[in-house]
Amino acid sequence: MKTLRKIAFGLLVALILLFCLFPFYYAVLTSFETGTAIFTPSYLPDSFSLANYTQVLGRGFFPRNVLNSILVASVTVVLSLGLGVSAAFALARIRFRGRKLLLLTILSVSMFPQIAVLSGLFEIVRGLGLYNTLGSLVMSYMIFTLPFTVWVLTTFMRDLPVEIEEAAIVDGASPRHIVLKVFLPLMWPALVTTGLLAFIQAWNEFLFALTFVSSNDTRTAPVAIALISGTSAQETPWGAIMAASVIVTAPLIVLVLIFQRRIVAGFTSGGVKG
């Protein structure tokens, strides 16, 4: 019976991995094919050509679009973590009236669909003179990254031992020193986890990037990929689109592989109080 369970569990894991990894595998496979080979279904590499990558990277705007995505996502993560840590300290360690209601309100903001706030946010962006700038994307992305960051960091900070904070107060540490010198070193797993998830959200965002910027110099990579098209399905450069998709997806995979231990620690820490 145990052997059957192990076999069934192994088959289930293999099925899940196949379901998750096959689209990316097929994208990589297609990105190395050219001509009519793209339209011929093949699950093993028949040819190898870097023409699609040369075509994508040779475009004057796509490398710039990737850099825009890196800049916008990085700034969004830094601001979200900076504000999130401060807000988490106040919500987790300072008792005040309406604290739970405020935390629930912060979380509820992230539940609104993007399309529901698009028109109002567009008016704000235009009123501030941020239209067609990367600043508009940073500001709009923080609408859904900051509430998530605050919620996760608050939950994590609540589970930190109170004795550590009390010892720091006895030693004369100010709230700023407690956050920077005491809590931050203990919160690295949570910071890495929330920061990486916020980075992925900002990196993949499409609707705001499509609406708030309109020039090749300010577009992000997802929008640039969507605009790679032809006059018909046969003329659409599918190989170039797949190559661009691989270029955009690869950094996320590398980041997850580098920080996988921190991510697992961030998800599991706080689940059991010591």
Summarize the structure in words:
The protein has 274 residues and is mainly α. The chain folds into 2 domains: 1-49, no CATH class; 60-268, Orthogonal Bundle (MetI-like fold). The protein is built from 13 helices and no strands. The protein has helices at residues 2-31, 51-58, 62-93, 99-109, 114-127, 134-158, 162-170, 175-186, 188-204, 207-212, 221-226, 238-258, 260-268. The longest helix has 32 residues, at 62-93. The chain is globular. The chain starts with a helix and ends in a 6-residue tail after the last helix. 28% of the residues are buried.
For this structure, what is the CATH class of the largest domain? Mainly Alpha
Overall domain count: 2
Question: What is CATH's topology name of the largest domain?
Answer: MetI-like fold
* CATH architecture group name of the largest domain: Orthogonal Bundle
Judged by helices, strands and strand pairing, the structural class is mainly alpha
What is the overall number of helices?
A: 13
**What would CATH call the homologous superfamily of the largest domain?**
MetI-like
- Separation of termini? 36 Å
What is the string of helix and strand elements? HHHHHHHHHHHHH
Shape: globular
Helix content: over 70%
What is the strand content? under 5%
What is the count of β-strands?
0
